[in-house]
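INFO  loader      accepted 1 record
INFO  loader      residues=312
INFO  predictor   begin
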Amino acid sequence: MIQVKNLTKHYGPRRAIHNLNFSIEKGDVVGFLGPNGAGKSTTMKIITGFMAPSSGEASVAGYDVFVNPIEVKKHIGYLPETPPVYSDMYVREYLQYVAALKQVPKSKIEKYVDNAIDKTHLGDVQKRLIGHLSKGFKQRVGIAQAIVSDPEILILDEPTVGLDPKQVAEIRDLIKELKGQHTIILSTHILPEVQATCEKIIIIHHGEIVAQDSIHNLAMMDKGKSRLRIRLRKDAENLHSVLSEINQVISVKAGTSAKDWEIDLQGGDEVVDAISSSIVAKGYGLVELSPSKIDLEDVFLKLTYGEQGGEA
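INFO  predictor   done
INFO  writer      dumping tokens
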């Protein structure tokens, strides 16, 4: 459905993306994940024909983005980072206008607009001026214009920015509802958004893809590693040196105080026993020890911020 080969974009001397290669199949729900400034929006703009790359190729539904941009746009519903709405138009009027621009047959415009309004819960504000709406409702209008032509491919760039928790949950439910009806790309820097809605992840950092796989496979990258959260009775100014002789200890990080620590380790119960014994022997007093597995967030931080990313 979407093919990207060696895609590169420079803004003057600054390289935004470099040599991106990925493919997205029909029906996939893909999270395009990365920190702010990683190159996500640039990639989305190129795929949708909004801007040209410096080099490389991109095709959508078999059409080259640069040779047949009009055909590509017929297959895509796009919500850019800033919703493309007109503040002096009414919500319903605007969606009718967008449907006509996207060449929805006149006989189907009202049906398609009704469907978009219903899915984005805009019924109560459809007769209001867009300029009088809250930021959250404007975001919903932006999503409505992306789906109003019932496109095969839906590209959402930071779709929950500025929404309150209830609205975020509604948008997540909407994306889940659209699964199977559309191929969806969700571009975001918010990991829970991807975990809640997507099946596959492409992680981009400094303009380059650092990982792409299913959520399950990425979450298993650090299989076998565990984390201990430890609370002590006394301050431990240098717990690193206390545990330095235990080879299976990967990292030791201070928490909010010298009594709270986080330890990443490789191994099982015998390593936990060695850690607790060392702490008790030093007289710090072990008040609490809570084990937990390394999760997808840790993998993401490791790939985009390095081993010390969790401390930032």
